[in-house]
Design brief:
The chain has 311 residues and is α/β, with parallel strands linked by helices. The chain contains seven helices and twelve strands. The protein starts with a strand and ends in a 13-residue tail after the last helix. GO terms for molecular function: hydrolase activity, acting on ester bonds.
Length: 311
């Protein structure tokens, strides 16, 4: 692991770190409250489909830190500043492993309460949150913001044509030809994965000036979208789970989020009359305030469960 660099940003201290996931490294940024010597809780944040840790997450992280909660953001492998070849590969199994590895890494950090960690994910990573929380009974809380929880519902409601494009690219890759990179987003009718009217302006709005995001991703033949269904694990999430739902969201199907809230034993469902990306800008204050309230209630010291159940 590289030695961290450190800088002060107002009342926030940020450190650039790296941690291992399998045999590669993920780039991460740790935000801490400045001048706080007590052990603090921590939120581990994973971003949405193809996005990096620079895109929209720092604003949330700084607000969490203002509330006394350290925050670890990171890039999934193959994206941003993390290792991984080929670049721009979006592999949901690897991303789940990365998110779990980030949680484990946070538990090792000095000054972080190992039993006071929450996992947070937006969009595609919101589904990863459900999977990781279903397999880690030591988590104190989980936040799934406008999550994509059922690839089958996504294909049925919004993306049959684009799913076919994805599969065509994946099939071509599977027969030994050069892998095809699709555009992540574009206007309606474009040859891209996400072409809903809110998609392209949403990505443009959330990406930072120093973003490493690229409007392309690599299809993988063994991972059809319709088989990515973290909704099936919602009933196994034992920690408190905050689910954020946008009633105007045309990217994350609403039905699976509602079903996840019904199935998870300790769910908290919040509805907002907004689209998929609006929690990063127009509705940011309401969304982040609800999340801070939720985290403040649940990131408290508690008896440690049997770690043998962590997978």
């Amino acid at each position: 692991m590289a030695n961290p660099t450190q800088q002060d940003v107002s009342q926030v201290v940020s450190e650039e770190l790296r941690f291992r996931s399998d045999d590669e490294e993920c780039a991460a940024t740790l935000y801490r409250p400045d001048g706080i010597e007590d052990v603090t809780p921590c939120v581990v944040m994973g971003n949405g489909f193809s996005l990096t840790r620079r895109d929209g997450l720092p604003r949330f992280a700084e607000r969490f830190v203002d509330a006394g909660i350290a925050t670890l953001t990171f890039d999934f492998r193959h994206l941003g500043d993390s290792d991984g070849e080929p670049r721009q590969l979006v592999d949901y199994q690897r991303q789940r492993t990365d998110l779990a590895a980030a949680v484990d890494f946070a538990r090792t950090l000095e000054g972080i309460g190992a039993d006071r960690i929450a996992v947070w994910g937006f969009s595609f990573a919101g589904g990863h949150v459900v999977h990781v929380a279903a397999h880690d009974d030591w988590l104190a809380a989980a936040v799934s913001m406008f999550p994509i929880l059922d690839g089958l519902a996504l294909a049925r409601e919004y993306g049959l044509r684009n799913n076919a494009r994805y599969m065509a690219a994946a099939v071509r890759a599977s027969v030994g030809r050069r892998p095809i990179q699709m555009a992540v987003t574009g206007p309606p009718g474009a040859p891209a994965m996400l072409t809903q009217p809110e998609a392209e302006p949403g990505f443009d709005a959330v990406c930072a000036e120093d973003s490493r995001w690229r409007n392309e991703f690599l299809a993988k033949p063994s991972q059809p979208i319709v088989e990515i269904r973290p909704i099936r694990e919602a009933s196994n999430v034992r920690c408190p789970l905050l689910l954020c739902l946008g009633t105007e969201d045309t990217i994350a199907p609403v039905g699976p989020i509602e079903r996840a809230a019904d199935r998870a034993p300790q769910s908290d469902l919040r509805r907002y009359p907004i689209g998929h990306f609006d929690g990063f800008h127009d509705a940011f204050e309401e969304v982040v305030s609800d999340q801070i309230d939720f985290l403040d209630r649940h990131l408290v010291p508690s008896p440690r469960p049997d770690r043998s159940r962590i997978q």
